[in-house]
Each structure stands twice: as structure tokens, then as C-alpha cells.
């Protein structure tokens, strides 16, 4: 129970600190916010300025403005977009599904391919397959998602015309088709990390005493790999999966821009470019929340996979 309370307290504290830093950055951003809301300095009459200040509390101290914003944000109200004139919550909701689909698609690719390559590399250690996998994944691991996106567009979308260059598609099948290249662009660099962690964890477990005992008892190799090596390697693999998914959430910003996807990442880029501060604040806070939730879920799953971690809780 104490662990649950401590975890909740840590999450709330992190979110509050993150929200304050985000708000502070937007507060210190150059430019006249009242003029932006009025549609330009030429439209900022004394009456308009007074109405804007009363509605948005621009005349209040920064800390007072922050608590007004935080109180509304807790209720799901992030204000209205300076550019679109819509509720920010509605804008986020309309873009949310594209980003979630892309993140999940990428996570499946990374975990599935990384696990397979890591297992093969560990079982074929110091052989040609192991060397080839390590060489290829090391090369791919150094490619940033945006560079991978440009290369994939040039080859498979423009050159071979196998995939579309923009859009998220309609319907499940069409969405898979449209988001295949973006998902691969996000997955390329992360597959290397998943492969290496899987390989290292399995190699470490294969050299442990309980595996030696299983071998001396004459147990089938497949059984030993499945029950003694891979199963005991689950905790670090789960941790790495959580970190990769959390990093993928942030990586969607550049990839969505490259592929012209109407997701949360593209919305953030547009909001920063157009100085749409309420949207920028909301998206940044949402990304922080998604990162925290993802890493916490991975932490819980890691404790489920490794009973020794549960026993060490105080």
C-alpha cells in the first residue's frame, strides 16, 4: 500500500512540476499574447484589451495565472486555441487516434523484431548470424527517425510508389497501409536497443547456475531457453520496451511532420510555429503524462515478471 501511495505521489509531483515549467516557458515567450488573441496589434483597442485581460487574467501575477490554468487543466479545460478558435481539448481529441495508432504500431514492430533478432543473436552467439545482426542493428541504431523518414519516402513512396507519402488513411486496413512507413521510420533506431538488451539479458541468464543445472539434467534445449533463459530475461526486456515506447511518443513529432500526419506531434509543430500557446502547453503536458504513464506501466510489469523486485519493496 505504501508503494502505491508513493508512486501516486511521485506521479502527481512530477506532473505539477512539469506543468509549472511548461507554463513558465510559455509565460516568458516573447510577444504580446493579447495582440495574438485580438488578431493583430491593429485590432487591440482599449476595450478589447480590457476584455482579454479579464478573461485570461493577463493582469494577474504569473503564479496566479498558473493556478487558474492548472485548475482548468485538471478539469480537462486547456482554454481556446489562438489560431483555430476551438477548445484545445477538442483539437487534441480529433488528433489523438492517429498518434496512438502510430505509437502502438511502432511498438509492435520494435518489440517483435527486436525480440526475434535478440533471441537469434543470443542463441547463435559468436557465429555469423550473431555478427550480422549486431552489425546491422548497430548501423540502424545510428539513424535518426527524421532521416529514416526522408529515406523511406524517397525510396518506397516516391521511387517505388508502394506507399503513400502523406495522410493517415481511413479504416483499419487503410490506416495500417498509410502508417507503415512512419512506423518503420520510428522503429528503425529502437530495434537496435531492443535487440541488444534481449541478447545481453539472455546471454547473462544462459551462464547462470540454474541453467547449468537444467542442462546437466538433460532437459530439452528448447525448454531451457523458454522456461529458464527467456522467462528470466523478461524484466530488463520489459523495462527497455517501456523506455522505447515512451521515446516513441516524443519521436512522433518529427515523423508526423515528415509524413504530413494530422496527429498530436504535427499539432505541436504547428502550434509552436504559429505561437498558439494554449495548444503548445496542452500538447507538452500530454506528452509528459504519456511518458510517465508508459514508464509506470513498464515498472509494474517488470515487478510482475520478477518476483525478487516485489520482495525488495519496502
Explained architecture:
This protein folds into 2 domains: 2-74, no CATH class; 96-311, MetI-like fold. The protein is an all-alpha fold. It is built from 14 helices and no strands. This is ABC transporter permease. InterPro entries: BPD_transp_1_N (IPR045621), MetI-like (IPR000515), MetI-like_sf (IPR035906). Keywords: Cell membrane, Membrane, Transmembrane, Transmembrane helix, Transport.
Task: Give the SSE map.
Layout: H1 2-28, H2 33-38, H3 46-56, H4 62-74, H5 88-123, H6 128-141, H7 145-159, H8 172-206, H9 209-216, H10 221-230, H11 234-259, H12 264-273, H13 277-305, H14 307-311
Helix pairs in contact: 1-13, 5-6, 5-8, 5-11, 5-13, 6-8, 7-8, 7-11, 8-10, 8-11, 9-10, 11-12, 11-13, 12-13
Q: What's the N-to-C terminus distance?
A: 10 Å
Task: Decide which structural class fits the backbone.
Answer: mainly alpha
User: In the CATH hierarchy, what is the class of the largest domain?
Assistant: Mainly Alpha
Mean pLDDT reading: 83
User: What is the strand tally?
Assistant: 0
Taken together, the total number of domains comes to 2
- In which range does the helix fraction lie? over 70%
Summarize the structure.
The chain is 78% helix and 0% strand. By secondary structure, the chain is mostly helical.
